[in-house]
Structure formats: C-alpha cells, structure tokens
Amino acid sequence: MALEYDLLNENVKKCQYAVRGELYLRASELQKEGKKIIFTNVGNPHALGQKPLTFPRQVVALCQAPFLLDDPNVGMLFPADAIARAKHYLSLTSGGLGAYSDSRGLPGVRKEVAEFIQRRDGYPSDPELIFLTDGASKGVMQILNCVIRGEGDGILVPVPQYPLYSATISLLGGSLVPYYLDESENWGLDVNNLRQSVAQARSQGISVRAMVIINPGNPTGQCLSEANLKEILRFCYNEKLVLLGDEVYQQNIYQDERPFISSKKVLMDMGLPFSKEVQLVAFHTVSKGYWGECGQRGGYFEMTNIPPKVVEEIYKVASIALSPNVSAQIFMGLMVSPPKPGDISYDQFARESKGILESLRRRAKIMTDGFNSCKNVVCNFTEGAMYSFPQIRLPTGALQAAKQAGKVPDVFYCLKLLEATGISTVPGSGFGQKEGVFHLRTTILPAEEEMPEIMDSFKKFNDEFMTQYDNGFGYSRM
Ligand code: DCS
C-alpha cells in the first residue's frame, strides 16, 4: 500500500502547523467533554461572534440565488445598490457562481483590485499581474512552490512567524532561513540581523532567494515603519531577493503613529533603479480586516517586476486547480470597492465596519494591559493584526515540571492554562522564538464584553502558576 505512514513523503511528516496543533486538539477534546472553551488560537473572528457585514452578504446572497432577482418583491428584502452590485458581479461571470472562472480569477474583479491598489498607493496597478486565490494561504503556497527548487534554496522568514511559512517551506523541501525580530524594540526588524542570517545561510551552501515580511505582524502585532520598509527593499535589491509582502492585516491598525503603508508604495516611492528592479509579490485576503470572512476563502496577490515568462508559468500552475472560488472572488471585489458615501448602503456599512475596528482597537489595549498586569508576563502593545504575544518568564520549577511531563515548557504552561480556564492559546514555540525564551499567542478576538472576565481568569491562573512553581532558583531568560 502506498499510503502507509512509513512510505509517506518525508516532507509531509516534517511539516508542523501549531495553530491547529496539540493545544487545539486538547481544547477540542475538552469541549466534547462539555467544558466551555474560549478558542483564541485562530484569527477567526466570526467563530468568536463577529457578525458579517450586511452589504456584502446581501450581494453574495443574490448572486447565489439569482432567481431572487426576478422576484417582484426583491426590492422589499434587498436595497437597490445591493441588487445593482449583484447584477454587476453576475455579469462578470461566465454563468454565475456555479461556473469556473479564469484560473487567475474574474478579469472584472481583478480590475477592481487593481483600482483599489492604485487608489491606496497612488501608483498604477495592472490587473494582468493580479491573481485571485482561495485565501492568501493558497497564493503564498503557489509562489513558494515556484521559488523553491530544493533544500539549497533558502527563504528568509521572520522569527516569530506565522507557521504557514515554515510549514510550506518544509512541505516543498526548501530551507527556512530565520531572521529574528527584536522583542525589546517592539518586535522591530534590524537589517543587520538580516545580513547576518544571509551570511550564515550562505556559509552552509544555501542560496537565499526570497524574503518574507508580515506587516502588520503575526504573531507579534508590530507595524513596520516606512524607513524600515525602505531598508528592507534596498536589502532585497542588493541581495537579489524577491520580497513576499504578507499584508493581510493592512486594515487592522490600532495606533496612529505608524499607519499601514504598503511595500508596493514604498518601492515605487524609492524610484529608479529599485522601482523597476526589486521583485515583489504582495498578498491580501478577505479573512482579516473588519471583514473576517475566513470561511469564504478569498485572497489575491499582486506581482511587481516579475518577468512575463514567469507570470505565464505561475498562471499555468494556477490552472491545474482550474479556478479560485467564485463567490470568494465577489467578496474580494466588494472588499476592494465597498459602498461609497451617498450610496444607499453606505451609512450602515460605515457604521458596521467602524464599530468592529474601534472595538478591536479597545480589545488590543485591554489585552496588552491585562497581560502586563500579570506576574512574570511582559507584552508589547498590539499595534496591528489580531494577536497578543506576551512573553512568559517561567520559574525554573516549571521548566523542571515540564521536562518531567515530556513537554516543551510553553506547551506545558498553555496546557495548564487551558485545563484551568478553558482559554485555548498557541505556545510561542509554534511560531519560533529565541532559545530559552517563552511566549504564548492569543487573538484579541473574544467579545469585548467578555474580555475583562477572560483577562481576570488568565491573571488568576498565571499568578497561581508562578507561585506554585517558584522554587527560588530564578526564571527563564528574557
Ligand atoms: N498570512 C498571515 C500572516 C496570516 O495570519 C494568515 C491567517 C494568512 C496569511 C492566511 O489567511 P487566509 O488564507 O485565510 O487568507 N492567519 C491564521 C492565524 O494565525 N490564525 O488564523 C488563521
């Protein structure tokens, strides 16, 4: 039998994805046993009670059930602008939502994405260089698949990082080249670290070919400054790397000092020779922002300075899967061209989206403040994205107890937290971290009204844990 464990592709066995790892499995078990679990392991807003935005669901509902458009009463259930948009999107398809689209996505939606990018950045964007995907994940996988030829190819990945990158690189048999974000500098990125990482990889015979940035960061929540992005792009130019800009959290910003600025805009602002030479692929999704439509699986990537022959090859590979989800493409179209002032649905849309973002901003603060009030816990402010990533200084007594239990120390801590409080988090080791330093990741997504209670229960658990395992022999390092 070919599908025997011993005969499996070794890359499949090597690949790890902590967001749905041991902690998640244990949480699911406890839930089956009837325990109340607060799932903060995945950035999945609707699963934690966020309501969908009304307008896009109205449009997609009509696209899914086009016979409603022929019903004389349709205007009583749906506003005229939703009806018009549904007709518009149906006209872009070749047979409605049940028909495959072009493998790059519907040309009309790709044009809307290009217009959005142009409005956002102030530079032209070409729909031919935009591919729609089933979530950003599929796009990242497609591009890494094209870059990685074998273990001699290295991809620079931030540590801590979102494990889509480490898992996909393992799966494709490439080499992950880590660069460390500096926790004491609010998870900033120091270009000197990048140079060291590349030099070290080269000394091991690895040719570094791409660099990933996650901006705003997952799990670290930092927003990169324009100056930092410039340094990164200059570095990619000097080292001839393609920059993979994961910008899925671009709407999730919770401070005013560093608004989101796209890698594409910074690259174009830099002018020649950079703007014509640095290769960039930037990713976006309908899963995040105030949309949170994770289950719809919609995303796109935009390519800059990628040669036409390469674009053709990427198109060919995308064609093997025939077509991205068509309903998700419509969500993407709606995300990049939401109702405008003066439209019938504008006020409601603005109210709903503003309400979600303002609440997320408050929750980011409640969470970070809550962590910082706990014994032996320090947490940088969540500037953006959907996560807090507190550092937990574990007493040596806890390190010993973890060893006895055969667990990595942060897994041990997170399991105890889960059993005591029902809060399901992801241990920091799942994202990579410096040796001997421990973290956990939680989303900032639980309902705002439940937040104080969750933080109280976390604090009670943590402070008791620290007392229980404090043996007077110090703590893990910072
Ligand atoms: N990039 C980053 C940085 C992400 O955090 C995620 C999802 C994705 C890409 C992929 O999203 P989609 O495929 O849905 O577009 N974040 C996961 C996480 O850490 N928690 O929830 C999902």
UniProtKB/TrEMBL annotation:
<dbReference type="Pfam" id="PF00155">
    <property type="entry name" value="Aminotran_1_2"/>
</dbReference>
<keyword id="KW-0808">Transferase</keyword>
<comment type="similarity">
    <text>Belongs to the class-I pyridoxal-phosphate-dependent aminotransferase family. Alanine aminotransferase subfamily.</text>
</comment>
<dbReference type="GO" id="GO:0005777">
    <property type="term" value="C:peroxisome"/>
</dbReference>
<dbReference type="InterPro" id="IPR004839">
    <property type="entry name" value="Aminotransferase_I/II_large"/>
</dbReference>
<keyword id="KW-0663">Pyridoxal phosphate</keyword>
<keyword id="KW-0576">Peroxisome</keyword>
<dbReference type="GO" id="GO:0047958">
    <property type="term" value="F:glycine:2-oxoglutarate aminotransferase activity"/>
</dbReference>
<comment type="pathway">
    <text>Amino-acid degradation; L-alanine degradation via transaminase pathway; pyruvate from L-alanine: step 1/1.</text>
</comment>
<dbReference type="GO" id="GO:0004021">
    <property type="term" value="F:L-alanine:2-oxoglutarate aminotransferase activity"/>
</dbReference>
<dbReference type="InterPro" id="IPR045088">
    <property type="entry name" value="ALAT1/2-like"/>
</dbReference>
<dbReference type="GO" id="GO:0008453">
    <property type="term" value="F:alanine-glyoxylate transaminase activity"/>
</dbReference>
<feature type="domain" description="Aminotransferase class I/classII large">
    <location>
        <begin position="81"/>
        <end position="456"/>
    </location>
</feature>
<protein>
    <recommendedName>
        <fullName>Aminotransferase class I/classII large domain-containing protein</fullName>
    </recommendedName>
</protein>
<dbReference type="InterPro" id="IPR015424">
    <property type="entry name" value="PyrdxlP-dep_Trfase"/>
</dbReference>
<dbReference type="InterPro" id="IPR015422">
    <property type="entry name" value="PyrdxlP-dep_Trfase_small"/>
</dbReference>
<keyword id="KW-0032">Aminotransferase</keyword>
<dbReference type="InterPro" id="IPR015421">
    <property type="entry name" value="PyrdxlP-dep_Trfase_major"/>
</dbReference>
<comment type="pathway">
    <text>Photosynthesis; C4 acid pathway.</text>
</comment>
<comment type="subunit">
    <text>Homodimer.</text>
</comment>
